[in-house]
Amino acid sequence: MNRLGDLERAVMDVLWERIEPMTVREVGRALSDRDLAHTTVMTVLDRLAKKGVVERTREGRAWRYRPAASRENYVSELMFDALGQTGDPDAALAAFVRSMSGTEAEALRRALAEIDQPRT
Amino acid sequence: MVSAALLATIAVGCLFAAARLRRASWPLRGPHVAVVAWQALGLAWGISTIGALLAFGLAPYEQGVFGGLSALAVDAATHGLYLSGLAETPFGATQVVAIVAAVALTLLLFWGLSTSFLHVLRTRRRHRDLLSLVARDDPDVPGARILDHPAAAAYCLPGVLNSQIVISAGALAVLDRSELAAVLAHEHAHLRQRHDLVLLPFSSLKRAFPRVGLMVGYYNAVALLIEMCADDEARREHSPKELAMALLRFGTAGTAPVPAGALAAAAAHTDQPEVVTRVSRLLNPVAQLSRGATVAVLASAVTLMTTTVGLWHLPM
User: Fold this and answer.
1) What gap in Å lies between CA B200 and CA B226, rounded to an integer?
2) Domain boundary among A47, A67, A87
3) Are A8 and A63 in the same domain?
4) How far is A35 from chain B (nearest CA, A)?
5) Are B136 and B148 in contact (CB under 8 A)?
6) Residues A23 and A57 in one domain
7) In this predicted model, which residue has the larger pLDDT, B164 or A95?
């Protein structure tokens, strides 16, 4: 992964860990082991805000940043895409198999039991 | 008028052929060839329908579709709209309507294609952004990114230089090593053969004609064939049983933890569930489509295309 992507990830990890919104300075301090310039942190937060994964609110003279959604929410969103449940399946990505209805899963479960028998 | 009649015949013939192709069983034995047949039918249908309308509308020029179009352009540029002169007779009015309909259909198809393409690009960018924030790498699964979610999923995110394969933790939990390798091979086949580009025109047709259930049927048929193509590719290096087992494990592991709201959209399947078709095809191997049949289908596809385009030139 490139450096910027790596930084975005690290910044998100910091924001997800805290409950309250953070300023640029606070984020930089939380990542002090990386020794980042103030402007670098600002750039990264700006990029994340443009991507819509970070929201910012003004507090006095400083902006405060917080994640637009939890990590679990984003994982769910990706899985939703992946399992083709967004209502309008198209060519955006190709899943190995889309999510199944109860009857389909039941039919497969029976087939699986038949195949597994010789193994056990 | 002859070319208009012939093109209209081809357009209707394409619809009949598509209906037959959807019910045919040979595509199971030669999914690659069947995908080509679908592409030829789709393209020929579009070109022949638009061509029939134009050939009818431009018949007074007696120069065929291509000649008629350039004559119309010259006319429009030199002495205003020839169309208004045409429309004064009752027969002329229908010809104007035909030309307008041809233009509208062309725009609709291009609009569908471009909006689909943009939608796909936007979805992928968002997906890729999020993936880079929440997915992790696993040394045991080189070349794939891991999503920590209990449901079973494996998919690929196509791209020119940045395509990715993603596996969920739930999938890793239910697959053994060889099954996982088979799944990865399946996804690699999708990426290598750019199956997403094959599917794109069909998803845009669906978008252009959202009320036409037939289009959804065509899309699903091609989507299933593409999965079979990838299954066949994976089968070159892995046993079909491993793939079938992987499918079975996915089906029996992953359904529970997913929110129920949107499930109905995916559950609206036709007669036999697609995944069952795939599994039975893997477990009960059928003979490959014979060389002769393959050549026959490909030759028909080429003939169909050349005839349709040729009729655009026919000055009758």
Assistant:
1) 12
2) A67
3) yes
4) 21
5) yes
6) yes
7) B164
Residues A46 and A88 in one domain: no
Bridge partners for A56 per DSSP: A65
Are residue A86 and residue A103 in the same domain, yes or no? yes
Read off the pLDDT of each residue in B149-165 and give the average, rounded to a whole number.
Answer: 88
Model ipTM value:
0.82
Please, which residues bridge with residue A55 across strands? A66
Q: Would you list the DSSP string of B87-115?
A: TTSHHHHHHHHHHHHHHHHHHHHHHHHHH
CA distance B150 to chain A (A): 10
- How many structural domains compose chain A? 2
Whether the CB of B216 is below 8 Å from some CB of chain A: the reply is: no
| pLDDT tens track for B175-228 | 999 999 999 999 999 999 999 899 889 988 888 887 888 888 898 899 899 999
- Given a contact cutoff of 8 angstroms between Cβ atoms, the answer to whether A108 and B275 are in contact is yes
pTM (2 decimals)? 0.84
Contact status of B197 with chain A (Cβ, < 8 Å): yes
What DSSP string runs through B201-219? HHHHHHHHSTT-HHHHHHH
Q: How far apart are CA B221 and CA B17, in angstroms?
A: 14
Label the pairing between strands B154-157 and A94-95: antiparallel
SS3 of chain A: helix, strand, coil, percent, to 5 = 55, 10, 35
On whether both A83 and A62 belong to a single domain, the answer is: no
* Measured torsion, CA atoms of residues A23, A28, A30, A33, in degrees rounded to the nearest 10: 180
* A99/A47 same-domain check: no
CATH number at residue A19: 1.10.10.10
What are residue B252's phi and psi, to 5 degrees?
Answer: -100, -5
Same domain, A61 and A81: no
Which of B130, B149, B224 is best to mutate for the A interface (most A CBs within 10 A)? Answer: B130
Length of chain B: 316
Are the beta carbons of B131 and A78 separated by less than 8 Å? yes
Contacts of B139 (CB under 8 A, 6+ apart): none
Last residue of a domain, one of A46, A67, A88: A67
Helix axes B2-23, B291-313, angle to 10 degrees: 150
CA distance B16 to B109: 20
* Cα four-point dihedral sign B12, B216, B163, A101: negative
**Domain, as residue range, for A48:** 3-67
Packing angle of the helix pair B31-57, B90-134 (nearest 10 deg): 150
pLDDT at B262: 29
